[in-house]
Amino acid sequence: MPSIKTFNARAASTREVIEQLDAAIVAETGTASIVFTFYGCEHDEKALHTWVKSRFPTAALIGGSSAGGLITDQGFMDEQGVGLLLVDDSEGDYGVAGAELGDDAAQTAENLLQQALDNCGCTGQLPELIWVYQAPGHEEEVIRGLRKIVGDNCPIVGGSAADNDVSGQWTQIGTDGVLANGLVLSVLFPSSPIATAFQGGYEPVGPSGIVTGIGYHPAGDSGRVTASSGREILSIDGEPAAEVYNRWVNDLIGQRMQDGGSILADTTMFPLATDAGHVDGVSHYLLIHPESVGEDGSLRTFCNLDEGARIYAMKGETLRLVDRAGRVSEQARRALEADGKTVAGGLVVYCGGCKIAVDEDIRKVPAAIAEGLGDVPFIACFTFGEQGRLIDRNVHGNLMISTVAFAG
What was the pLDDT predicted at 216? Predict the structure, then answer.
């Protein structure tokens, strides 16, 4: 059965962090089948990769940069932190593959899934979990490529690598090295069951409308191309999208309406959402984070929308976003307990936008996760996009939280 351990260290110097981690792991005689590694974006990711690879030469490696810090069962660490979660499972199989996303992210995802299966000797088999870490921007295409092979028959969970200020300093780590605009994915065949959970911590506040125009700007000088799906909402109910959204949120972005620009920080507590379906009469929502306003009144988001989709105005609260991390972890734990298992450890993805929104209350999140999972090792990264299984379908969303719980 899997044995889970976490290690973390904090220092401005990557060399010093490595020295601290190395000493701790030697003392614990740590071994691993797969290593999840997260770090602040200002650390030397190549040095970290070289060290992890040398310390665990036979392990699969996956991870990347995390927005402004990370969390382990030891607590919150700021952007100078580095954290590792080690899964030691000699009876399981774990494969990783990574590459730059390229011009066809869906095809890249297909290829990498096949490579990851080959790398752990499980060619043609269905993994219990696919866990992904990627550069932001092409998440839906990645899921589409993976679903061509596995459909929704196994969960696809993970996150989009992040930095401190959405300036593009995010990186991804795989067994073979470091990527800047890449996708790294792992296939997990653990010797004991796993359980996953995926939720958002926001509630609808009333207004809703139909997306009546979607557009995007292609490379080059060919002008605007309209489309039926994309991340730029041109209009809602036939009106400029930003004007409608601003009305829904009581002039929250009024100062940006004239010249356009980023609204990321302003809108974290007031996202949009689509209705993902119902379970026991309760609606579940896939959250969409507004990113910026265009000078033409368009609204750009971090998630694709389809023309004709109904979108809802949502609202969050700090306490709810803190508590939700615990509830998601508890949901995963209870799923294992229902199967007669206990939790050995956990892997949590917590939206970087939510982290910014809760501010100093992020320091309460480790206790919430620990209460949900139990007294076990865990690690949490902060991401700019979240992937998970929502009502039996693998999707990409924003401002979401996921947990993977490993059985002991």
Answer: 60
